[in-house]
């Protein structure tokens, strides 16, 4: 691709005279070690490493043009200075791969909680009806039936545009994170359907406050195609606010047509009745528990109807939906206790998980959780408060340290425990709880979901599920009554 074409939509290219240089660009790279001859290298100021430091290495590897933000002179290749390298990368990636989202039906789901489950539900509904789907999200990416590792909830702009262009699937379904939006990872992606699930305290170490967090989430809806639809959860206060904003902008909300306004008239864990204003009603029954999952299912249900999937087929698919790895994933203790592994990592998500255990008749609720190091600290006390209120026993343990020293994070656990136990080693915390849980008790292990551990613990396991399964093999079928102090 010619350089002038590649840079056609790049914002505020300072060296505009370079746009007419007759240079053929064969690829785009942001990592100097991946540069090939005739690539354009984009230097991005990262959070830990500044890509401008690797410009010389990129040129030595064969980069024929460099794009960056700094005022650099005397490079031996053309240098295009831009106001924002991340935005420029996204704009170039979209151009390089031919704006591939225009030729797909693209569904974007944003919100704090429920994104992953809703994407999986939609994918399952569509594939049950013979439609093919690519998926981009927290657990994994799937393109043309091939599973790819997921590094971030939303892939970087270059990888995302590449994978969309490679996709032969009819639908593209993606979780869209606030980081993905603020870092322009989805810039240039045009959406047919945008869904908003809810908003809760999260990532306030990155966004300065809830207003900024909400504003970033709301920006997704600016990328709807001209006839695109917005599906909003009005049961969430932030959702109501978003609906008002979108209406004022003239963006079409599905609720603007009476037969599209879905209302949940009966809501309880596992089964619910939903109705439309047109007096239609349908009962949704799920294999996975939790009122929050009924809300997720309702969003997926309505979206599938708008796509054109017959109602009876949508209901059938939801009834067969097997769930998502690490999202309220239930395992049966040999002694009859119930173990739940869930990704919950906000106060509201804690409430949904623990309250579901209560509503399902748990004798006692044990809760094992921690906090990710160097991440949003404002939500931690709220998380502990919810756990203390609903669970009988809460045990604080380590989550990902993220370069925070072990001793510092351990001290944080003790400071925030509020009457709970602290067992720093995550695998031992799970072991202790499973040894004390009896038939009828529920053990909720939250925070990691299906993710692998980032650091080694005492037991030879790599995830919460693997730890639970390992311990099940070692726990005697007979359990002693009564709760003993954990240590």
TrEMBL record:
Gene3D superfamilies: Mur ligase, C-terminal domain, Mur-like, catalytic domain, MurE/MurF, N-terminal domain. It is an enzyme of class 6 (ligase). Keywords: ATP-binding, Cell cycle, Cell division, Cell shape, Cell wall biogenesis/degradation, Cytoplasm, Ligase, Magnesium, Nucleotide-binding, Peptidoglycan synthesis. UDP-N-acetyl-alpha-D-muramoyl-L-alanyl-D-glutamate binds at residues 32, 152-154, 177, 183, 185. GO terms for molecular function: ATP binding; magnesium ion binding; tetrahydrofolylpolyglutamate synthase activity. Its EC number is 6.3.2.-. Residues 109-303 form the Mur ligase central domain. It is found in: Cytoplasm. HAMAP family: MurE. This is UDP-N-acetylmuramyl-tripeptide synthetase. Carboxylation is probably crucial for Mg(2+) binding and, consequently, for the gamma-phosphate positioning of ATP. Pathway: Cell wall biogenesis; peptidoglycan biosynthesis. GO terms for cellular component: cytoplasm. Belongs to the MurCDEF family. MurE subfamily. ATP binds at residues 111-117. The gene is murE. Catalyzes the addition of an amino acid to the nucleotide precursor UDP-N-acetylmuramoyl-L-alanyl-D-glutamate (UMAG) in the biosynthesis of bacterial cell-wall peptidoglycan. GO terms for biological process: cell division; cell wall organization; peptidoglycan biosynthetic process; regulation of cell shape. It comes from the Bacteria. The keyword Ligase applies. The modification N6-carboxylysine is found at residue 217. Transmembrane segments: none annotated. Pfam families: Mur_ligase, Mur_ligase_C, Mur_ligase_M. Residues 25-97 form the Mur ligase N-terminal catalytic domain. Residues 326-449 form the Mur ligase C-terminal domain. Its cofactor is Mg(2+). PROSITE patterns: FOLYLPOLYGLU_SYNT_1. It comes from Viridibacillus arvi.
